[in-house]
Design goal:
Blueprint lengths: L1 H25 L9 H13 L5 H10 L11 E6 L3 H4 L1 H10 L6 E5 L6 E5 L7 E5 L5 H11 L1 H5 L3 H4 L18
Parallel strand pairs: 1-2
Antiparallel strand pairs: 1-3, 3-4
């Protein structure tokens, strides 16, 4: 009997959620894609124009999903097999041109390893976030590290945020000459 009550409550909860999704969709909001930050922007723009939009903003907030908060790490380590750069031009570009300009990012070569970035805490815990970089474009690596690495997040200008120049530094390029 207790199991039947739990199932009934679960089914009723699903109907309410489905009803909310249908209600939001009928009001013009896609609950799966609407972030609460968008509702805050809507409210701000309406206030700037002198309109209240109270009901619209309330409907928006009733249908929005809170954005996930990304954990920021103080240091990162890019791990790759040195010979992997011969096969992956984007990895080569990132390591030689972009990585040197990112503070708190070190490049470590480990024979036979697949390219990955490890984001580490420096609070003494062994917590590490590891992302496999196989097949990633150079700009995708910059964007990922820019979102998750504290040094890049805390001191970048608008130009740097677009990946134009993360931080001043050197860059290197491997050139070969036949003779």
């Amino acid at each position: 009997m207790a199991n039947a009550r739990v199932v009934l409550v679960f089914v009723l909860s699903l109907r309410l959620v489905a009803g909310d999704v249908a209600s939001c969709f009928a009001q013009g909001f896609d609950q799966a894609r609407l972030g609460c930050k968008t509702c805050q922007t809507l409210q701000q723009r309406l206030e700037e124009t002198g309109q209240k939009g109270g009901a619209l903003v309330e409907e928006c907030f009733s249908c929005c999903q809170p954005e996930a908060v990304l954990e920021i790490y103080p240091k990162a380590r890019l791990i790759a097999d040195a010979s992997q750069q011969d096969r992956d031009q984007d990895l080569h570009d990132f390591i030689k041109r972009k990585a040197p300009r990112i503070p708190n990012l070190e490049v470590e070569y480990q024979e036979g390893s697949w390219p990955a970035v490890e984001l580490e805490k420096d609070d003494g815990s062994d917590e590490v976030l590891r992302a496999d970089l196989t097949g990633w474009k150079s700009d995708q690596i910059v964007e990922f590290i820019g979102m998750r690495l504290q040094a890049v997040n805390s001191s970048e200008s608008e130009e740097e945020a677009q990946g134009v120049s993360l931080h001043k530094g050197w860059s290197a390029e491997i050139q070969s000459c036949s003779g």
